[in-house]
């Protein structure tokens, strides 16, 4: 990810933006956690995560049956700063998503 235009296009969808911000503040999440937090279908969330990976915003790693997503370690500093600022200025929206996430039973363990 080197182009700001690509970065902003990738985050122009509310589902992709919310998933990215939630992953940014939580550090790492799997599809099932995002399905719960975003209250959307697994196929839709998976499609959006695939697009975010293709854009270079997310990395993924498989651990057993789970695939965990995190912010790409190759994301430019300017993009990370944008995610930091956006998450900080949208605390209320993120808290709603985090509340849904925390209410999830049987969350997979990342480590």
UniProtKB/TrEMBL annotation:
CDD domains according to UniProt: HTH_ARSR
PROSITE patterns: HTH_ARSR_2
Pfam (any one): HTH_5
One GO-annotated biological process of the protein: response to arsenic-containing substance
SUPFAM superfamilies: Winged helix' DNA-binding domain (SSF46785)
GO molecular function, one term: DNA binding
Residue ranges of every copy of the HTH arsR-type domain listed in the record: 1-90
Keywords: Arsenical resistance, DNA-binding, Transcription, Transcription regulation
Highest rank taxon of the organism: Bacteria
Family matches, as PANTHER family: ARSENICAL RESISTANCE OPERON REPRESSOR, TRANSCRIPTIONAL REGULATOR, ARSR FAMILY
Name listed for the protein in its UniProt record: ArsR family transcriptional regulator
């Amino acid at each position: 990810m080197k182009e700001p235009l690509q970065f902003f296009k990738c985050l122009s969808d509310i589902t992709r933006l919310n998933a990215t911000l939630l992953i940014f503040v939580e550090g790492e999440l799997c599809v099932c956690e995002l399905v719960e937090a975003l209250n959307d279908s697994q196929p839709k969330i998976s499609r959006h995560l695939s697009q975010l990976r293709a854009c270079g915003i997310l990395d993924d790693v498989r651990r057993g049956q789970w695939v965990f997503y995190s912010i790409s370690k190759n994301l430019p500093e300017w993009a990370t700063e944008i995610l930091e600022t956006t998450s900080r200025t949208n605390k209320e929206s993120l808290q709603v998503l985090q509340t849904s996430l925390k209410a999830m039973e049987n969350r997979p363990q990342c480590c």
